[in-house]
Amino acid sequence: MPESSHQEFKSLPVTGDKISFEMFFKRFYPRLTAYACLFLESKAAEDTVQDLFVYLWEHAGEITIHTSLDAYLFKAIYLRCLNQLKQRKTRDFHHKCIEHYLLEFEIQLFDPDTNQSIRKLFMEEIKEEIKLAIDSLPEKCREVFMLSYIYDLKNKEISEVLGISLSTVENHIYNALKVLRQKLAKHAFLITLFFP
To answer: Which of 119, 166, 117 is nearest to 144 (CA)?
Structure first.
C-alpha cells in the first residue's frame, strides 16, 4: 500500500488537487456514511455524504475550519441529516394538509346541502322509494296514511271523512308506519323526520 494512503488529513485538500481529494474521500466516506445511517436510510445517507463531498470539492478554498477536520465533517453531516429530516417533516405535513383539503373538498362536493345535483338525485331516489312503500300498503291503510301525512288531516277528521272509528284510523296509521319503517330501514333517520 502506498505510504500516501496513510496520510493524516488535518485540513481539506487544496482545491483542484484530485489525487489528495480522492484519498480524502476514501478515508472519510465510509465513516461519514455509517454516521449518516444513524439518522437516514442507507440510500439517503449515501446521497447526503456525497453531496457534502461535492460541496467540499467546489468550496474547499472558501472553508475555514475552527475545530478539527473530523469534528467539522461529522458536524456538517449531522446538520445536513437534521435538515433533511426537517424537510421531510415539513413535506409530510404539507402532504397531510393537501390530503385533508382534498378530502374536505370531496366531502363538500358530494354534500347534498351544497350540491344541488346530488341533493336532487338523492331526494328523487328517496321519494321514489317512499312512493313504492306507500303504494305497497293495503288500500284502506294507504288511504288513511295519505290523508294523515300527505293531506295533513287530524285523526278525528279522517274518521269523519271515511266514516270509520277513531281507533281504526289510529290502527291504520300505526300499521302503515310499521310497514314504512321496515321497507325504508336504510333511510331510518329521514323516515323519523318525515313520519315521527
So the answer is: 166
- Strands in the chain per DSSP E: none
**For the chain, where do the domains classified as CATH 1.10.10.10 start and end?**
115-194
Question: DSSP states of 127-156 as a string?
Answer: HHHHHHHHHTS-HHHHHHHIIIIIS---HH
Q: Where does residue 31 rank: exposed (0-12), middle (13-18), buried (19+ CB within 10 A)?
A: middle
Query: Mind listing the pLDDT tens digit for each residue in 94-135?
Result: 667 666 666 665 555 555 555 555 555 556 667 777 778 888
- Sign of the torsion angle spanned by Cα atoms 113, 118, 120, 124: negative
Task: Dump pLDDT digits (tens) for 21-43.
Answer: 888 889 899 999 999 998 888 99
**What does CATH list as the number for 115-194?**
1.10.10.10
CA pair distance 130, 149, nearest whole angstrom: 12
Note the pTM of the prediction, 2 decimals: 0.44
pLDDT of residue 194 exceeding 70: no
CB atoms within 10 A of CB 83: 11
